[in-house]
Design goal:
This protein has 120 residues and is mostly beta strands. It contains no helices and 11 strands. Strands 2, 4, 5, 6, 9, 10 and 11 form a 7-stranded mixed β-sheet that branches. The chain is 0% helix and 58% strand. A hairpin with a 5-residue loop joins strand 5 and strand 6.
């Protein structure tokens, strides 16, 4: 069964940086879009950033200029470089990926989440 595992979260002071990574287990399926979502206590989960297989990226307005999403297809890994972190970035961050067989969509997978806590 395909699994996604996140790492890189932690406790950091405001203005600091963290890099999250998410790696998929070996799979015979291809992956289209990969992305990062986050959920803070009392708030709904939101899309933070996404990246397509050909490198197109999208970001939520609140992180533009501070966060950068990238991927390494050979390693089946997606990264989220987070700079100038703010307390409002505190949340549980989840990665996700869409799996395909050829052009046919198969399923989505989500990681278990990695906690990011930013303190003033």
């Amino acid at each position: 069964q395909v699994q996604l595992v996140e790492s890189g979260g932690g406790l950091v002071q405001a203005g600091g940086s963290l890099r999250l990574s998410c790696t998929a287990s070996r799979t015979i399926f291809s992956i289209n879009t990969m992305g990062w979502h986050r959920q803070a206590p009392g708030k709904q989960r939101e899309l933070v950033a996404s990246i397509t297989s050909d490198g197109r990226t999208e970001y939520v307005d609140s992180v533009k200029g501070r966060f950068t999403i990238s991927r390494d297809n050979a390693k089946i890994t997606v990264y989220l470089q987070m700079n100038d972190l703010k307390p409002e970035d505190t949340a549980l961050y989840y990665c996700n990926a869409d799996f395909y067989s050829g052009s046919a969509y198969l399923f989505d997978r989500w990681g278990q989440g990695t906690q990011v806590t930013v303190v003033s």
